[in-house]
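Deliverable D2.4 — example input (structure tokens):
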């Protein structure tokens, strides 16, 4: 029993976030001008705060953008913070080497227009890296089926999230096909686009967790890869 409980505890630390973090680290060095979109309270999950500080310190310039002022004020690693909408970024053309978005793309209401704006502020051959839910993933499907009032309570119970940290989701760039289509329209080329299986999300609900762990195991097979929960993408701006 103790071994099973320990496993449940470890699943809180979502492995898709570790994969995102590893890829992010490959693109940051002392010459990188980096913009993080929807930076909120942090770039990485709270349990990776120290690693986040190291990544931010490695960049030549790290800048964060979010429309929610309260989130910006509480952000603890990026000091260059701007309240702005992704649809109209307050930066000159060709400013950044790297733009990132961790669990943000699902909130974009007009991703073609917003990807175009991201492309504008990126330098030639600049990188846009993002991590987002897969529209066909079971967590996304459940989130879309649950009424907003109940969803807020469930997020508070499972993740400790407050109501003010819940934002509208549209999932308009949350499949590999849609990502490739939008990339082609916005001067990007796909370097990497892969579906990832995240860790268990229902660990606080014993009735469902065994079924969830079994389903996660099935998602790791090739035949069900289209239903994996998350997508990590690396786009490069064309010359």
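Example output (designed residues):
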């Amino acid at each position: 029993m103790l071994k099973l409980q320990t496993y449940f505890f470890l699943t809180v630390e979502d492995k898709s976030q570790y994969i995102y973090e590893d890829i992010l680290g490959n693109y940051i060095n002392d010459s990188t001008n980096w913009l993080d979109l929807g930076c909120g309270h942090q770039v990485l999950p709270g349990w990776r705060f120290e690693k986040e500080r190291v990544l931010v310190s490695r960049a030549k310039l790290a800048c964060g953008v979010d429309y929610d002022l309260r989130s910006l004020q509480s952000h603890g690693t990026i000091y260059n913070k701007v309240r702005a909408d992704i649809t109209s970024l307050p930066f000159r053309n060709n400013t950044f080497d790297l733009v990132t978005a961790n669990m943000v793309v699902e909130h974009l209401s007009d991703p073609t227009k917003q990807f175009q704006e991201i492309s504008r502020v990126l330098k030639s051959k600049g990188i846009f890296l993002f991590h987002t839910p897969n529209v066909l993933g079971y967590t996304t499907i459940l989130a879309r089926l649950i009424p907003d009032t109940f969803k807020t309570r469930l997020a508070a119970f499972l993740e400790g999230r407050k109501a003010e940290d819940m934002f509208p989701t549209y999932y308009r760039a949350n499949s590999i096909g849609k990502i490739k289509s939008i990339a082609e329209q916005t001067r990007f080329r796909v370097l990497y686009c892969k579906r990832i299986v995240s860790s268990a999300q229902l660990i606080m609900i014993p009735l469902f967790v065994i079924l969830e762990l079994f389903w996660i195991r099935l998602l790791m097979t090739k035949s069900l890869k289209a239903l994996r929960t998350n997508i990590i993408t690396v786009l490069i701006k064309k010359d």
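Residues 152 and 163 are 6 Å apart (CA to CA).
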